[in-house]
Amino acid sequence: MNKLVFLLLLLPVSVFASSGVADSETIDLTTHWVGYFALILFVLAYALVMVEEFTHFRKSKPVILLAGLIWGLIGWEYAANGIPHAAESALRHNFLEYAELLLFLLVAMTYIEAMRERNVFEQLKDWLINKGFNFKQLFWLTGFLAFFLSPVADNLTTALIMGAVVMTVGKGNPVFVSISFINIVVAANAGGAFSPFGDITTLMVWQKGIVEFSEFFALFIPSLVNFLVPAFIMQFAIENKEVHLPEQDVLIKEGGIVITVLFMITIATAVSFHNYLHLPPAMGMMTGLSYLLITGFFIRRSAKKNNQEFDIFKNVSNAEWDTLLFFFGIIVSVGGLGFIGYLELASGLMYADLGPTNANILVGILSAIVDNIPVMFAVLTMYPEMSHGQWLLVTLTAGVGGSLLSIGSAAGVALMGQSKGLYTFGSHLRWTPVIALGYAASIYAHILINGL
After folding, report:
1. Amino acid 343: pLDDT
2. What's the confidence (pLDDT) of residue 53?
3. For the chain, which residues score pLDDT lower than 70?
4. Extents of the domains making up the chain
5. What is the pLDDT of residue 247?
6. How far apart are CA 249 and CA 309, in angstroms?
């Protein structure tokens, strides 16, 4: 019950001024039956999201329906009061926020899928396996690679690549697999916290213009501490045995290296559009997509000569559409709940009563229970008055807080499915106190280095 109370307190709103809706054109529905019914619908839909692992009912389905129902209720009430355009204007603002996020992520996912199809990640995996590292060395290598790969790729892709390495070399060693998976989850989430590209939450903060691209790197040391503290303790549970596996030889397909370089150039383009041209980063990413489309034309012609296939649009179709549609449902539905009038309640209870530091630490803990995306979206739309150091703190906590539980991040949920029962909610929970120690140490490191 307490979890639901916390969730309801964090429901966000599109700030009225920024949505183009004047205060005089809004209705306070927080104590109206529309508001209560919308809250009940949200809780029911999010309950389905949280049990997706067990029901296999994709998380996008209930939240898309939820978004339509909530705004239908709002539109009905506003039309009855003779101000239908107020709700329309607010909803269009939500659509704009989602469109920018969708285009940005779609390009990034397309590049990742193209690199995967060209065997770029498979070659990295086989390189690790063929080097003959022992279990403890692989524990540290997969952790560090997850930490440094996550800022460029996303934490989900990073976790799956490193998880495949661990599953291959860890046959017959369930302790190594379980602890290494925990280490990968912590490392991938920590690595994503100091880069705008590492996590959806950091991307939202960057696109809002609250933290500039270069300023995210102030979180590098706190993020590293978050990963190293639990990793140092967990390593003592792993036996230092040699790994003996037959060597594998996977070659990167034609164009794989070029696509990887183009991805780096695309990221640079997005940063340049945002920092120097003051245009949305999504425009830079779409420009970068054209690099891939043009190059893909020549790769496809060459592949045909060798009886191979390369289709960019097939890579687009392989993007994580369920995740992209889930973002739509979350952004639009919680935007609707906020438009009903829950912003001031949540902001007052958290940031006024608890204070910014305690509230931002709580955001990280909530991110382990609820998804960090609606939690961070709530904070961004509340837009509490706080220092730059506090904005960096909430960026850190929202990014790494999901590591406290296996269900707290996409990386953890994905690895539970990949592990064939070797990495579970319970096995992760046994190490939660150690992970919490790293969480506390990273906050202390941030305050010490960056201040509040």
Report:
1. 60
2. 65
3. 1-24, 53, 244-248, 343-344, 347
4. 2-450
5. 67
6. 21
